[in-house]
Amino acid sequence: MGANSSTIKELSENEFLKKLSGTDSISENEPFWNQLLSFSFSTPTNSADSKLLEEGTLSICKSLIENNPRTGNLGALIRVFLSRTKELKISAECQNQLFIWQAHNALFIICRLIKVFTSQISEEELLLHFTYRPADPGNYESDTENLFEELLFCLIQLIVEIPLLDLTYSILLEAVTALIVLLSYQLFRKDILHESPIHRHLMKGPCLPYTSRLVKTLLYNFIRQEKSPPPGSHIFPQQQDGGGLLYGLASGVASGIWTVLTLGGVGSKPTPQQEQSSPLANQSLLLLLVLSNLTDAPDCPNPFRQSVTFFRNTQDSSVSPTPNPHSFQINFNSLYTALCEQQKSDQATLLLYTLLHQNSNVRTYVLARSDMENLVLPILEILYHVEDRNSHHVYMALIILLILTEDDGFNRSIHEVILKNITWYTERVLTEISLGSLLILVVIRTIQYNMTRTRDKYLHTNCLAALANMSAQFRSLHQYAAQRIISYACRHLRRYLYVLDKLYFPHSHCATLQHCFSALSDNGEELLSLTCSHILRSYASSLFSLLSKKHNKVLEQATQSLRGSLGSDESPLPDYAQDLNVIEEVIRMMLEIINSCLTNSLHHNPNMVYALLYKRELFEQFRSHPSFQDIMQNIDMVISFFSLRLEQAGADLSVERVLEVIKQGAVALPKDRLRDYTRIWSCHAAYPAGKRRKYPVNPGNLSDDCSI
């Protein structure tokens, strides 16, 4: 570095960097700093170049760690940067390019150094490095934390006060990234960092009054999605394909922070367009998420989380009964538009989840929107392409749906929104379908993917909880959506019969059914149903009668008997009793969903009744099952009522005639004969007590335990 352009390969031998990290102290007034900071540098635009940059400067950084206690050169560099920033706002207004250039370059070097420092030394040691002065070895200022606090305060002031122009874009991006780097110590800790000097400086002292302004600025950076300025508008050379000067480094650090936020999960790789088009928006969002998820201090709550929790709409003129000192107002319409457009990234989905979960003002506004499809469709597309997403992104999208479905108004309105030609849904051509029916199709598809691939109990529980919340408000379900609800329930009913058969009759001739369950698609369900009926109908009722005596004890005895009869086989035996419990849970929830629909909106859903009657033979086999007897009463009554109506209507009825009979019967059916099983599942329905939480990421200290 210095007056000429530098390349990554030259960095380790750069004379100015070697002097900075060497054994000689450098005064803040020496001409050396003007020489050091007058460099241009080709932008790392991918992770490979970023890694090369770090490797190329690692020896320099380690040398500075070793020598800085005697030279104090890190403190000198920071003071030079602070002096350059004092007139930065005026420089931006006056288009003083050289001044901004040198301030940016100083911050570039500081950020690069601190990133290595955080990976090599403890937080306490890092703070000591800010205090060393060129004197006796190990000498440091008596006021040990002033310089570090000044740097933090300067970075926050820079972000909130410097206008966003082509000229200032890179230094603003660098300031945001520097704060992320300073907060990155959590990356090197296995436990949660509860007490941190860096956190304390941010939550108290001179930085505290800037809390709301910082959060508001970061949100507006995300909303504006300003692209990186073209090369011609920069004061330093830059590669043609865009990106900020340090965006490669910034992206690498931010990816690490995102790993913390997702509890170690691997985030979806951003596309090159996402990486390079709006780096400031992306980094601002990541910093906002990091700040709002810092743990509370022992004597005060996290002010950034408070700011995220209490900010209001600019159009909201009402006076809050309990105003929060860190609250502010922002344009909710612009925020909503940005959230709808940016849901392809993990961090944007996490922001949406955080706002819906924590900020009641945002949640109320979103639920009142008349264009809800703009938000819901991107979420459904995330779930639909589940195989291309990481588990955390999928889970967060699902929890967002679960939050939305807690609202009856939402559950009603989504069935009134008619969509045409959903191109990304490829299972079947959907020329016209309601948003509610599409949501049902996508959620059921997600459940099936989970049950066959990831087998995460809590994922399918939350999927079913979302459907259960919606079920009382089902309206005019698309025939395919109604078929999928019933066929999915039937699939588990058949699976239950198969596992029950393997448990009690391990040497029966039903082994080929396992292949059927894994290989047959929905189009082959009729063959599978016929096979199950012929093989299992003869003893299903007797098995259910046996189970009704002492359900769990009988299952345990049958499992032990199975292990005894097949004990000579060295291969591990499947735990059929456990499988039965899981399948029972799914069946129970599916029956509750069907019951809720029949009880509350039967007359609105003739397609649901039609699909139920079409599969009635399988449902009838479960009348006497001890786990389902109560909830089967409604279904059995509806099947009997409409079956009688169809018999009275005559034989060889067309589909249209059957639907007409169902609609007429729905009006005549006495509603008091149906028992209401409706219950509301909240977004906390994720984990049972005592279980380790895998995801979703829990913002702050908010609970995500299971509750109904």
Automatic annotation (TrEMBL):
Keywords in alphabetical order: Lipoprotein, Myristate
InterPro entries in UniProt: Dymeclin
Pfam families: Dymeclin
Superkingdom per UniProt: Eukaryota
Key word Lipoprotein present: yes
Family assignment from sequence similarity: Belongs to the dymeclin family.
Protein name: Dymeclin
Gene: dym
